[in-house]
Amino acid sequence: MLRLIFICHSLDIEQNKIMTESLSGDPYHIKYSYERKVLAKQLSMVRTLERKSLFNRARDEESYIADLGGLSLFLNYVKHNPFSNVVLDIGAGVTRGIAAISRSKEGQGLKFKATNLAYHSLFDSDEGLGSENVKLTSVELLEGIADDSVGGVIALFSIAYSIDPSRAIDMIDRKLVSGGIFKSTFRGTTDTEYSKDKNYLPHDLFSCRLSNLGYDLGINEGLKKSTILAIKKGSSSAVSAQVLLDQDREQYFDTMYPVMLNTTRHTAHDRNFILYPKGIIREDQIPPEVLYMERNLQRRILSAKN
What we know:
The protein is of the alpha/beta class. It has two domains: 61-238, Rossmann fold (3-Layer(aba) Sandwich); 264-305, no CATH class. The chain is built from nine helices and nine strands. The strands form two sheets. The protein has a seven-stranded mixed beta sheet with strand order 3-2-1-4-5-7-6, sandwiched between helices. A two-stranded antiparallel ribbon has the order 8-9. Helix 1 crosses helix 7 and helix 3 (61-67) packs across helix 5 (96-102). The longest helix has 25 residues, at 27-51. It is globular, with a radius of gyration of 20 Å.
């Protein structure tokens, strides 16, 4: 926590400097120059990533839920927001994953929208969300999304490519209604595929801005990935962001337990593995604060196998 406070303070100083310099220019010129800069840089960057096969635009429902560390309680939280039942997926790719979630049991009673940087024909396929529900815009602009109209925002490894984290969070804040909720996943420091990607930003830059805006913030920080959940002021729920983040993950693991039990083989001498829906990783790759859940799951599986 002290580390995050220090980083936030340093970022505030730099942000104030940038804002002072920006306000000294012509507002009209700044707005449209900024828009062109954002779109041109992001489109170029995403296309480069796609050529290198580093950017997965076609994630399915299982991948979405796994990488977000569960989504059921998040969606249920949005359903109970009296001001909006809209879920916005920022950087949704071909919208395959969010479309499947919208048709699932958990998605019933909610409206789903998405953003992407470019049109794709799969928007209007049987697997897509429909082009009428997708806005072609960047997170710094979110054009086509009305202010105070969104109950929940998700961003799966997407907003980390923003060229202006503070502006990105400010724009998300504008779109969220009172008590709105935001959940995002970021690559971790040991993710070898992205470790050399200088365009990919850590969650700290976004978490700090959310904290400065008064959001209740929950963070599960790991070596492979980090997930943040933030709740805007005005929520009538007594559940904190950290508790909701942890509970969503725990419920996801409980749901996946029978699947892992039936599909994962173990040997008697292997006692250091940690189970995940997508495979097995070493215990030393998991941050200490979340080991209790994986260890408990491990004991349950070993007990069932014996």
